[in-house]
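Cross-posted from the bioinformatics board.
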Amino acid sequence: MLLAAAAAATLFRVVPLACAGDRLAVAGAGVLRLAEGASCAAIVPGRAIAISLDADNRATPQTLTPDALPAAKIPRAAYLIAPAAERDADQTELVTSTIDVFVPPRTPPGDDIFLSTERSGWSPAEVRMDRVDARHFRLVLKLRQGARVAFRVTRGSFGTIERDENRALPRAHVAKGEPDAHVRIDVAAWADID
Amino acid sequence: MAFRLRVKPPRSGFARVALAFVVMAGLPLGASARATATLDGASVFFFSDTLTLVARGGARFALADGTRASADAAYVDLKTDRVVLAGHARVTRGEASANADAIALEIDADRVDLLDAASGVTRTSRALGPASPAEFDAQRFAFPDVDDRYAFIKSRHATIVPHADVRFSPASFPTSVGGVPVPSYLHSFSTGAGFSSSSLQGATFDQPYGLWGSENALTALHARWESGPGAALGLQQQLVSGDDAYATAAIDAPLRGYPVSGFNAYRRLGSRYTLSVDGSGSKYGASGHVGLGSGFLGLDYFRSTFGSSSFTAALRTRDRPLFGGVTYRLSGNAGFDAQYGGLLGQLPDARRYATVWRHGLDLSIAAPTVHIPLGATLTTTYDVSRTWYSFPHYNDSFSANAAVTRPLTRTVTLFGYYLATWNANVYPNAQALFYPTLNPPLLLPDGTPYFGYAAFSGAGMSRTESGVLQFTPNGNTSYRLTVTHAADFPQFGGFGRPQWEARADVKFRPFPNIGIDVGRAYDFDWGGMRWQPRWSFAITP
């Protein structure tokens, strides 16, 4: 009967910071009170779990399911100690970040365009972009929520890296792991052309 | 501004690498930043895209100032240098200590927040003096919900240099195909432009292995595969000053072949100019270049130990509007080419022409992408140039490129390219001297005579027709088929470019953290071979 009630209840995916007595501290959220009979035994700090809230907003640990809501959805009234500002720190979620690169007219038409990122130690041909048309390339990255990937644009080698309008090396661009994030890059020049 | 590069023949490639290893190993010591934090745990996971460290199974965190902390688990955000210790957390410094259910602190700041689930949040400093009540700042106590299975590196000990790198001891790579566990691995996350520079030669595959690093320097060993010599080892030192300056030096030693050394330096001069110097050397000789660049000016000087040098000063306009979205750019250049013993070896008095001055003009026109019938778009560019020499000689060049894009469905696109370049070297009254009829005729590598080459008297043509079919079902996957036809002159059975090439490329992501880009290309009926296959392969994060 308890299981049936739990199944019907809304589940929240939380990362516990600590659990002691009847108090459960939730990362980036606040401090909740555990329900009667619930214990800290199965709670490992830093390891995500699911909780359900009863009518008195007391938390009961549950088996984690994919449909659990993020901690940011926990009603504020449920907290014994509420945060001053809320933040959902779910980094398991993959979000889509789109990078559009527009190349200058003198780019050799058949050349591929690549992204070079810090993830590979700046390998100049790390990720090949998909061609949209002769001067427009696109890459759709699946990034973890909160990711921050610094990148530069190349034609496959360091000798063909992008340059700015003064032929200087530009700062690294950044693709962010935010829902539907989009970056547009207009390459002014290439190191080996002009 | 001449400079000389002399490279003595090495006794062996490995001896040279070993010597360079010893010399270069000493270089970064002065630049290496002292590690300011360490993180230990039964398991320490590193997520490269979010620059996140998570320690589980009894985490221990230590700062260089003597601050020590422990907890059930710990999280370090390398983007913000924030640390969260969760569960039975304790922080000590000297005789002082504090306990809490969770503790938030920073690597490069003094603030320490203590969360007690019963009484709330208090705040103190690294000195751990009396704590005062504070608000529950959710941001400071954020501990990300990460899946350990997708970690890039799994370790037990991490040494952190803020804004620079993390060294893992040991390191395994749970999501990297073929990633071999190593006793120690340095991951650099500095973003200075110089870290993307390289003075190593191009390679089919290059896997760097960081040896030493700091925010401004990185010494890395490179495991490489190079077309031609095959497997190779490289050693590279990078010194970086933000995005404004860098210097790199490297030695590339193929297991079968001779080593090549290189260097590369760059400095931004104010907001409009850049200075660059680069060079390379092998047992056969060395060459170097120094250049001053900007949006409107370029000065370049090259020199080699083979006795050749050249200088070019170029002025260019930016792209300027012409009409209807069409732009043009005009550039002019002047300089010289020099060769010890004479440039024009065909002349009996070649020594008189050790230096030949030249000047040239180049007009480039680019049309915008326009819609054409059948739902396609067309993009074209044109370029015409002439270069005059102080010897009776001029060179004309004209090129025209067209690219057509035709989306067939939302995920399938057809591309077509036509690239043509006509080039002529003209020597008034001396054309036959510089382009004589060969007798006997030119022989190809397989011994076949190329009689048609006799028609080549300085005017050549290069034409490329290419068709590409691209299928991109989703952001992680793309398939591409390319057929290329090259119709050049001179070109024949192994001389010049292959006439036909077919290529297939597949890019896909079998695991969330691993991407694979594999390509197979064939050159057909060229150089006496029915076809000649090539592979390309890349593993991407």
